[in-house]
Each structure stands twice: as structure tokens, then as C-alpha cells.
Amino acid sequence: MRPFLIASIMLVGLVADPAPAQLALPPVGNVLRDPIGAVEKVADPVVARAQRLAAQAETLAQQRTDRLARFVRRHSDVIEFDRSGAPARKGELLLLGGEAAMRDALRHAGFVILSQERLDSLDISVTRLGVPAGLSLAQAQALIDTVAPGAEVVADTLHFPAGNVRGKDQTAPAQSMMRAIATRVGMIDGAPANHIGGIMVRGFARGGARAGDHGSAVASLLAASGVRRLLAADVYGDDPAGGNALAIARAIDWLANADARVVTISLVGPDNPLLARAIVAGQRRGIVYVAAVGNDGPAAPPAYPASYPGVLAITAVDGRNRVLIEAGRATHLDYAAPGADMVATNAAGRRVEVRGTSYAAPLAAARAAAALDLGGDVRRSLDAEAQDLGPRGADAHFGRGLLCASCRTR
Q1: To 10 degrees, what angle do helices 378-385 and 360-373 make?
Q2: Which of 4, 361, 377, 381 is closest to 187 using CA atoms?
Q3: Burial 169-182 (b: 16+ CB within 10 A, else e)
Q4: DSSP conformation class of 261
């Protein structure tokens, strides 16, 4: 039994390790003389590596929890946790659809109708509800379960960028060497700076469109990858509660109406029924959504919108084609793309180092747009060009392979 268990541990380690060839196998003679000892020598480093990876994953997950707690404390005037533990806009809930009688029941229970709007391109109606005085979001959600059990009411949960811009400014940005892509591409993020040409920008948060480093970096990677018709939706503005589900849904509605055929989203957050509805409505119009899996490690909750069915979920690799240790996860994984050991353009127009799955998603989106340019099926085209890494075929580390390996900007 003991050799079977050791061999099983060894097999699990080899499958989990994206670079098993780095393991040093014992000489054949040693295996013949002492098979159990020989297997243990191989199994020990595999187990040790698995333990290190598990510890790193737990650390990243805890850092995510701590970071969100600090964020909510810092902006406690406008942000609080909902009953699922997700940061959301304080004192507001969103009613999806709903008859007049349902709204009347909610008003009678102390809720205030703040506004009503319709996202025409998505065929979605949203009512913003102010929660009764003195109630937290969690308490208000529980109250709705009692007074309007049939109502679909959700918190306006927040989504955060999935990448960092860091390091010292470098030289001016390099010119794209990629073939020009005519397909219209949308991005949902912060606003890019106006020095990146050919972009239509619209704001969907308080303060309107405000250029930032993250959005500028994403836009510059799209431009460097050949995208020439870019629509940028800023869902942050100057609002501490920016990146909320309603702002993203409004952005999706605008991009659908503007005939964007590919939309890249380098933001991560919890599952939200409003966002899920918006994505499905856009997919019905033929829009391809590409999203980052986040940077909170494999022990973090699945990232959305990457985890929604049909969305292309993208992870990131470094310059040696290793999956980033901090790469998060989705309920499925489609492809990998470069996301580290490269540069992009910040809001000041300088090239800076970037790292994160945020920067892999736009590269994959550019390849999806290129496939549409040629009139091909997106998934079939991407599968054909994806470089198979790790175990043969689709796997949990790289999905169906690496896209846009030559797109890394240095």
C-alpha cells in the first residue's frame, strides 16, 4: 500500500506542476535496489512544492480578505459589505424588473425609490432602492425576503482592477508591429489617457471619465496589438464606489448599442445577477466577452465576470511562460496570454512595467477581434493559434493554450 500512496502523491505533484521536467529523477540502479526509497526522493520535493504552493495560495487569499476589509473601512461612508461579504455601495439595493405592486410593497416597508432606468440594448430594467434608515445592506436584504419574497433585489457590488502598474518610467511607447484590426473593440475599465489615439471614451461613474494608469495600460496594449477602433467605458470616475455592477451594466449597454463586437474586462468581483443578465443579453447580440481571472491566487473565490458561461476567461504568464503565482481562478479557464515581464503605457504617456491578468485579457481580446476581422469562428480560430503548454491538451493552468506570445511589449 505504501508504494501506491507514494506513487499517487508523485503523480498528483507532476500533474499540478506546470513544469514537471524540472524534477530530478533518481538513477535507474537506485530504483531497482530500493524502489520505495527512490520514489520517496522524488515525492519529497513534489510534496514540498505542493505545500509551498498551497501556503502561497492561502496567503494570497488572506491578503485579498484583508485588502477588502481595509478598503471598506477607509470608505465606510459610501461602501459596506452585503450579506454575502462582498463590498457594495452603501445604503442602496437594485431591483431587477419588478411590477408596480412590488415596488409599492417595498415602499411600504420603508424602502425609497431613488431612480428607475432601462438599459434598452439589453432589455433590462433597474430600480435603485434606498434602504430603510438604520438598516445595513444585509438587514435590508433579509427584510426584502420577508416583505417581497419574489423580488430579485441585489446589492450593487464592486469590481476591482486585476493588475498593477509599477516601476520607473521608461522610454516612449513602441509602435505596434501587429496587423491593423478593424473590428470594433470595447473595454470596461478606468478611462485611458487621451494621448492614446483612436479611442471613444464615455464615463459611467460619478465624475465622468478620468484617465488613470490601469485603463491607459489596457488601452495601450490593445492599440499595440493592432486594435484601431476602441470604445472605452470608464466605470470608476472619481467615485470610491466605482466599478459597481450598475456602472458596468450601463457600460455593457452602451457598448452593445455602439456595435462593439469584442469587449474586454480586466476587473474582478463577485457573482452579481445584474451583471450576469447584462453579459447574457450582450452575448445574444453576438458580442464576445473576454475577462481576466484576477490576481488573488487559486484559493480565492471564482472571479466574475470571467466565470460566467461563454465569457473567455484569461490567465497570465510571465516571460518564461510560467503562470503567474498570483493568478486567480474562474469556474472555467479558456486561454493564457502574456501578463508580466512586459511594459505598457501609463496615463502620463510613459512606458512602465505591468503585471497581472489585467494585461493578458486585452491581448486575448485583440486576437478574438482579429479572428472576427477574417470572418472566422472566434473559438476555433483561437484554438488553432494557441500554443499548447503544460500537460497535452486543455488543462487547469493554461486552458487551451497561450495566445499572443509575440504581443508582449518590452
Answers
A1: 120
A2: 361
A3: eeeebeebebeebe
A4: S
Q: Angle, nearest 10°, between helix axes 137-147 and 100-108?
A: 120
What is the per-residue pLDDT across 71-81, written as a single tens digit (0 to 9) for each? 899 999 999 99
Distance CA 11, CA 2 (A): 14
pTM for this model (two decimals): 0.85
152 CB neighbour count, 10 Å cutoff: 15
Q: What CA–CA distance (Å, rounded) separates 311 from 314?
A: 9
Q: What CA–CA distance (Å, rounded) separates 298 from 18?
A: 14
Domain spanning 160-407, CATH class:
alpha beta
**What CATH architecture applies to the domain 79-157?**
2-Layer Sandwich (3.30)
Residue 36 pLDDT class (50, 70, 90 cuts):
low
Residue 348 · residue 217 · CB < 8 Å: no
Distances (CA, A) of 311 to 15, 45, 257, 355: 26, 37, 19, 22
